[in-house]
Amino acid sequence: MSGVDLLVTGAAGQLGRVVVAQGAARGLCVVGVDVAEMPLDQQAAIARTVAAQAPRAVVHCGAITNVDGCELDPLAAHRINGLATAWVAEAAAAAGAALVYVSTDFVFDGTATAPYPVDAAASPLSVYGASKRRGEEAVLAHGRPDFHVVRTSWVFGPGGRNFPRTMLDRARSGQPLKVVTDQVGRPTMTHDLAEALLDLLALRAPGGVWHAANEGQCSWHQLAVDVLREAGLGHVVVGTQTAAEYAAGLVAQGKRPPALRPSWSVLDTQKLTRLRGKPLPHYLDALRRYLPLDAAASRTAPPIPDLRGKHY
Ligand SMILES: NC(=O)c1ccc[n+]([C@@H]2O[C@H](COP(=O)([O-])OP(=O)(O)OC[C@H]3O[C@@H](n4cnc5c(N)ncnc54)[C@H](OP(=O)(O)O)[C@@H]3O)[C@@H](O)[C@H]2O)c1
User: Fold this and answer.
1) Given this model, what pLDDT does residue 311 score?
2) CATH code of the domain covering residue 18
3) Strand 57-60 vs strand 6-9: parallel, antiparallel, or unpaired?
4) CA distance 156 to 294
5) Is 258 within a domain?
6) Catalytic residue numbers?
7) Distance from the CA of 135 to the center of ligand 1, in angstroms?
8) pLDDT tens digits for 121-136?
9) Residue 241 lies inside a defined structural domain of this protein
10) Which residue has a Cα nearest atom 19 of ligand 1?
11) Distances (CA, A) of 70 to 35, 86, 132
12) Measured in angstroms, how far is the CA atom of residue 252 from the centroid of ligand 1?
């Protein structure tokens, strides 16, 4: 049976919707699925959907991405991010499909002093990081030449729940801003990441681990300053605090402290750069493209209901 070119999970999410759109723009026959079409907590639904679509490749973006929420429900995090990824990998292998599993810099503990290469030892600090690591292990255990784990970081895309959006909302509503200075990473725009994920498949890259992130690195505080400046809100003052001060402030308000996050999780993306012959653009360039798209996305209904479940 001939199937679709691409099956995208998490297709209503900020990354999945862009993978669907870019896959379609490349002329691929794409099916996007999310909770309604293929609930990841049901192995049978995954097996049935993948078998029915018979994709040439699966891009697995579906996940529980609320890092602090995962601490409250570790079982759900491990089931959806870990076990369900094993089920997706099994189903993809059974269908003879290539697989791209999107993972995270939060599999690292942040103690490195140089960018993390793809073969650096994982040592997650949080339930989210541990659950995503379980997903990685499940994918890599197949040892298939067309199964990929792609770690990325600090993702933002138009219409998504992300840090730039939160900063803009807070600044525009006049709420005070105080942002962490001692966590450093590589912000990454969905559009640039999706292009890299599709390139991996198009170039028939050898299976294994890849790191994909926009060029440049910064603290959350620097990113907040950059976002507001680029959005014409450079006059808004962004206060500073350490991660420990932020956690102590929450506890003082009777709230739970946030999940532990790596203090320095800069990914080394050289392997992907060599494959594609170019790095992803700088994150400041990405921010400048993101801002007008996000403004447009917030004025219109999200495109995903028109895309899901349809063939292109
Ligand atoms: N966001 C980041 O900063 C970041 C950083 C590094 C790596 N990543 C990884 O990148 C991938 C895409 O992230 P994203 O930012 O696009 O996240 P997102 O916007 O939260 O998208 C994830 C999608 O998965 C769906 N999902 C959750 N539980 C599900 C379930 N039980 N069954 C089916 N679908 C389910 C979500 O639906 P609901 O919204 O209804 O829950 C959502 O549509 C994820 O694998 C994430 O771990 C993200």
Assistant:
1) 29
2) 3.40.50.720
3) parallel
4) 10
5) no
6) 128
7) 13
8) 999 999 999 999 999 9
9) no
10) 13
11) 18, 19, 11
12) 30
